[in-house]
Amino acid sequence: MKINAEKIRELITQIDVIIVAIREEETDAESLLAAIHPVYHKSARNLIHYNAFRKFDLRSTQKKLQKLGVTRLARAEGHLMSSLLKTRFILYSLLGEQPPLIPKAMLSIKNGKRQLSKHTKELLGYRSKGRRVRIMVTQPTQAAHDYQMVYDLVQNGMNCARINCAHDNPEIWSKIIANVKKASKASGKKVKITMDLAGPKIRTGNITPGPKIRKYTPERDKIGNILSPALIVLVPEVMETSKPNTLAVGSDWLHKLALGDTFTFKDTRNKKRKLKVVHVGELEVQVHCYKTSYISTGTTIRCVNRELDDGIVGDLPAIEQSILLRTGDVLTITKPNVLGTTPVFDKDGNLIERPTIPCLLPEVFDRVKEGERILFDDGKIEGRIETIFPDHFEVRITRALEKGSKLKAEKGINFPTTDLGISGLTAKDKIDMEFIAKNADVVNFSFVNSKDDVEELLSELEKLDAINSLSIILKIETRYAFDNLVEILLAAMKVKYIGVMIARGDLAVETGWDTISKVQEEILALCGAAHVPVVWATQVLESFAKKGLPSRAEITDATASLKAECVMLNKGPYINDVLQLLNKLLSNMEQFHEKNEPMLPRMEKL
Predict the structure, then answer these.
(1) Cα dist. 493→217, 353, 397 in Å?
(2) Phi/psi of residue 211, each to 5°?
(3) Under a CB-based contact definition with an 8 Å cutoff, are residues 530 and 551 in contact?
(4) Quick check: 596 pLDDT over 80?
């Protein structure tokens, strides 16, 4: 191979410039490094090296190195100085020269990988046989009462059980943990318990309830013939858990009904409708309805085939209201103590009153500015803040579905360009921390935005005497958390052991769908430099978990989790099927990937 000595010397100079910059940044960070826990001393130093390294635009240098058949340093984050010095040595060797002496790197390539492996085992437990990537599974409420389901999760490859403190209560959490530990012991597999702090989630508040009414519609074919009548179930009382086709009619009247009884009633539109009894049970009576009917609380049901007192429909739950928003609409955001309202129109369809919806976090109103973006319901609806008043602000909708998008209560709100100045720990979080410190292995810290949030968490752990006994996973879910990730990691590295969760749902909304791929890669790289394990989270095989069938895109996405140390699954009725598939998928694909490095086994036919 013909050697262009001048170009090689240019490359050596470029690498020397980078090394000098890294050494200077390392010197500036000595006081910060002094506070790092001994477990992370080398890792923190390597993170500082990598952060300095990435302040250069390296693309031209990488292309030149590639042409020489030398490493492009694209996968060097875990052992940066060692890779730079080795590359420098090779370049001098191509010139037939000995490189000038430079202090040795503290961390070899081999030791860099060992650091990550060790930290992963300490944080997330032992890996499953044949699989490097651990699997974390969110536990549903059912896990408190269904031991067999939990046992199956452990048997099918769950390494970590996740409990979200935003749901249920300490009594339920205790039962879930007991079942996980029991199943873990029975299977001979150590399963780590991780618990999420709820954090200051920003959500829409309640909307004024709709009428207490239920609609029943028979199933018809394409030309309008009835295929099957609507089935209505008459019961003594409608409970919160009752199905939508139930009506309460009072126990005494219900027990007088007989098979074949026929009834008439007038629905809310004053249309005359009929019902026929088709089944009489001990606790319920089933009737058929042959035309679309709107039945409300207080509707009178009259028997026509025999003498019988009238039945009265009991109290029904109010219809949950939603606000239909189209591009160009204006939505008023109010403080939490005001119920939301749907828009009001006159008889000609002209808007009389704009819709309103409360935001459940009052601190927001002191921080927002005109012109800032706002997103609702995981980014499905987007707007821009137009006008601000003392007790509310107005939002012009800039993106919604063509036919309009519905906004309901309890939906997330994101302010991606607003510095809300909200602490990562709420009053509820601090109470929940007491339970977590006593019962869990890891706390998942939601809504971390800065090193100050980390310091607050460490202070709380110190009060609970849980420093270094309770591990920490930092949930990166905002653009501020991403921008501050290096200082967040260095603040957390004062204790052992830590990890990072890429909360891809909120993060995508905050940073933008066009940016999330880049953001994911950068988080993986920075955590790789710090030897901090990463949890790949949000919507992994979610449609499979909920509906029982994965999409092709979901399979590809699940495979991408091989870049991380752990993948998180959310709950769903088909979660054990999902776990079996993911376990097999990761085991099969790990021969082609070692973290973010492609591997090449011998090609074989299927």
Answers:
(1) 60, 53, 42
(2) -65, 155
(3) no
(4) no
| CATH-assigned architecture of domain 323-414 | Beta Barrel (2.40)
| Contact indicator for 129, 159 with CB cutoff of 8 Å | no
Give 219's strand partners: 228
Of 184-193, 473-482, 522-531, 586-595, the poorest mean pLDDT is in 586-595
The pairing of strands 219-220 and 213-216 is unpaired
Distance between CA atoms of 218 and 228, rounded to whole angstroms?
Answer: 6
* Type and span of the H or E element at 23: helix 5-28
Say which residue the tokens 């993170």 belong to. 47
Q: 503 burial class (0-12, 13-18, 19+ CB within 10 angstroms)?
A: buried
368 CB neighbour count, 10 Å cutoff: 19
Please state, in angstroms and rounded to a whole number, the distance separating the CA atoms of residues 420 and 413.
12
- Report the amino acid identity of residue 253: W
CATH of domain 116-198+423-598: 3.20.20.60
- Annotation: CATH topology of 213-312: M1 Pyruvate Kinase; Domain 3 (2.40.33)
How far is Cα 42 from Cα 48, in angstroms, rounded to an integer? 10
Distance of CA 126 to the CA centre of its chain: 24
Nearest CA among 135, 117, 133 for reference residue 192 = 135
Length of the chain counted residue by residue: 606
| CA distances for 229 relative to 158, 223, 226, 366, 533, angstroms | 45, 16, 7, 55, 56
Q: How far apart are CA 562 and CA 536, in angstroms?
A: 9
* CA–CA separation, 479 and 510 (whole Å): 6
Question: Identical fold at 213-312 and 323-414?
Answer: yes
Domain boundaries, the chain: 5-107, 116-198+423-598, 213-312, 323-414
* Strands (E) located in 403-479: 405-407, 413-414, 442-445, 471-476
Question: Using CA atoms, how far apart are residues 236 and 257, in angstroms rounded to an integer?
Answer: 12
pLDDT at 594 over 70: no
Under 8 Å between Cβ of 485 and 526: yes
Q: Kindly provide the residue ranges of all beta strands, DSSP E only, lying in 78-218, ordered along the sequence.
A: 134-138, 160-164, 192-196, 213-216
**pLDDT average, residue stretch 172-185:** 96
What does the alpha-carbon distance between residue 319 and residue 208 come to, in Å, rounded to a whole number?
10
| CA atoms of 458 and 491, how far apart (whole Å) | 9
The model's pTM is 0.80
Q: Are 161 and 193 in contact (CB under 8 A)?
A: yes
Of 581 and 530, the one with more pLDDT: 530
Cβ within 8 Å of residue 61, ≥6 positions away? 11, 14, 15
